[in-house]
Design a protein that fits this description.
With 346 residues, the chain is of the alpha/beta class. Helix content is 14%, strand content 26%.
Length: 346
């Protein structure tokens, strides 16, 4: 395996464009993601995000979707999923079907679905897999080789359906040590998707078997990580740091997170912690912005521009500073350091 610098050099100068699409929202028990949970902050109201990657070469645009978010009708998901969410609703959770799924938003934004070459699933959970049947059969599905592809009803507890794979090429990527195509970006195994240094798939295990994230070069010197909330919680915002009391909040001298990962949603808790530390090392770089599938700070007044706009100019806009440090502002959605304000968080 070849070892690259913390951030890879580009052999060609090629870049991609990243556009963020919101597909519905979920309210989840905060304890699923982290502990301890402060009184008054028992749930989190989170967007469900997906990301369109566009790669231009010689006047031709290749498009890749990273995740698809929720299906347009979540009642069509298998019984095991419905049962799981009923249990979470008892803890204050809620999931709503999106008004428009990814395919609909792409069409309305002038994107022909046939131009989407691939869909990369971060993992096989229903708030990320969307509805593959809404894409043409020419769109391949890209998954980690360890992804469980058993479908309901053959596997009763699966959240996947036969329609996710029907009449479609499914490409499994491998990060085995014997593969000559695997690189190291920081401490993460990576594959160069287009072969020109513009877009990488990262091996990020822990949440479930076959979990991946991506690294996109949006300018010659700046990058965007796209990842699920479960494997790349922001390193220094309200979703990662929580003071035990106001006097104990000393970020400058603190070397460890104030929050610990919540255990209920991780198949391999030890691996998940290791992965988070590896992604945190990249996220700490000033030239890297991390965009999550579930992050309330992305939406609203101080959030990012959504599709059809791109997020490529995040560095020029100072978005990283706003997203990472916005939690320090009382009333921000990431604020967890005192009594909840009655006013709506911004």
């Amino acid at each position: 395996m070849s070892v690259l610098a913390v951030l890879p050099l580009s052999p060609t100068g090629a870049t991609v464009s990243v556009r963020a699409i919101q597909i519905g929202s979920i309210i989840v028990p905060a304890s699923l993601f982290f502990s301890p949970v402060a009184q008054g902050y028992e749930t989190e109201d989170l967007p469900v995000m997906a990301y369109l990657i566009e790669h231009d070469v010689n006047g031709k645009t290749e498009r890749v979707m990273f995740d698809l978010g929720l299906r347009s009708d979540i009642t069509q998901l298998p019984p095991s999923f419905q049962a799981k969410w009923k249990a979470r609703e008892a803890m204050g959770g809620m999931m709503t079907s999106p008004e428009k799924d990814v395919a609909t938003q792409l069409r309305e934004g002038g994107i022909e679905l046939g131009s989407v070459k691939s869909v990369v699933w971060s993992h096989y959970h229903a708030d990320h897999t969307g509805d593959m049947s809404t894409f043409t059969s020419t769109t391949e599905l890209v998954i980690h080789e360890d992804t469980d592809v058993q479908t309901y009803p053959s596997k009763q507890d699966s959240t996947l359906l036969d329609s996710d794979f029907a009449n479609r090429t499914v490409r499994k990527v491998s990060f085995t040590a014997s593969s000559t195509k695997v690189f190291k970006i920081g401490d993460l195994d990576a594959l160069d998707y287009f072969g020109d240094g513009s877009f990488y798939i990262l091996d990020t295990p822990g949440h479930c078997p076959g979990h991946v994230s991506t690294l996109a070069r949006v300018t010659p010197a700046s990058f965007i990580i796209t990842a699920s909330r479960q494997q790349a919680g922001r390193t220094v915002d309200g979703a990662q740091f929580l003071p035990t009391n106001a006097a104990g909040f000393d970020l400058l001298n603190r070397t460890t997170p104030m929050l610990q990962l919540g255990k209920p949603i991780y198949d391999d808790y030890t691996k998940a912690k290791e992965t988070l530390e590896k992604i945190a090392a990249l996220d700490a770089h000033p030239d890297v912005l991390t965009l999550l599938a579930h992050d309330a700070s992305l939406i609203g007044e101080h959030g990012i521009d959504l599709f059809p706009a791109s997020v490529d100019d995040w560095q020029a806009k100072g978005l990283k500073e706003m997203l990472v440090w916005g939690f320090m502002k009382e009333g921000h959605k990431g604020w967890r350091f005192g009594p909840k304000l009655n006013a709506e968080a911004k």
